[in-house]
Amino acid sequence: MNAAPRGAEARDSRTERGFTFVELLVALTLLATVSLFILQAFISSITYSGRANERAAATTIAMQVMEQIRASVNPYTWVGINDLPRSSFPLPAPYGGVTNPTSHTFEIAVDLTNNTDLTVTTASVQIFRPADATPLVELTTVLDDQ
C-alpha cells in the first residue's frame, strides 16, 4: 500500500472544506458594493421618471388652457378670454373647464399682450410648481385678432 504522509493528508482535507472567512468577507464586500451602485441607479431612474411625469402633466394642462384660448378667439371680439394672474385650481371663468387629473399641484398664469401695430395678440400660458418662481412649462402662441 501506498501511504501518504500525515501532513499532506491534512492539507488536502483542509483545502476541500470550503471558503475561508476572509474569502467570504471579500465576496460579501463586493456584493454589497455592486448592490449599492445598482440601488442608486434604480432610485435615480425613479426620480427622473417622476419628474418626467410631472412635466407631462403640466404640459397637458397648459395645452388645455391654450386650446381654450384658441377656441375663444373671434375675428371681431374676444370671447371671455382675459389675463389670469398666477392662481391655483380650480380656475376662475373663462378657464373653468381646465382640470388637473393628476396628484401634482400646479399654479397657472395666463398673459395676453396686444400689439396694435401688428394687430396680433401674444398669448402665453405658464405652469408653475407652487414654491418655484420660474415656470415649469411655458407655451406661447400668436393670435391674429383681425
Keywords, please?
alpha+beta; 146 residues; Pantoate--beta-alanine Ligase, Chain: A,domain 2; 2 helices; 42% helix; 4 strands; four-stranded antiparallel β-sheet; rod-shaped
Major sheet characteristics: 4 strands, antiparallel
CA-CA gap between termini: 114 Å
Mean pLDDT: 82
Low-pLDDT runs: none
Spatial strand sequence of the major β-sheet: 1-2-3-4
| Alpha plus pi helix count | 2
The proportion of residues forming helix, as a percent range, comes to: 40-55%
Tell me what you see in this structure.
The protein has 146 residues and is of the alpha+beta class. It has a single domain, classed as GSPII I/J protein-like (Pantoate--beta-alanine Ligase, Chain: A,domain 2, 2-Layer Sandwich). The model has no long low-confidence stretch (mean pLDDT 82). 42% of the residues lie in helices and 21% in strands. The protein has helices at 6-15, 21-72, and strands at 84-88, 107-115, 120-128, 137-144. The N and C termini lie far apart (114 Å). Strands 1-2-3-4 form a 4-stranded antiparallel β-sheet.
Quick structural gist:
The chain is of the alpha+beta class and 146 residues long. The chain has helices at residues 6-15, 21-72, and strands at 84-88, 107-115, 120-128, 137-144. It has a single domain (8-144), classed as GSPII I/J protein-like (Pantoate--beta-alanine Ligase, Chain: A,domain 2).
Sequence-ordered SSE layout with sheet pairings:
Elements: H1 6-15, H2 21-72, E1 84-88, E2 107-115, E3 120-128, E4 137-144
Antiparallel strand pairs: 1-2, 2-3, 3-4
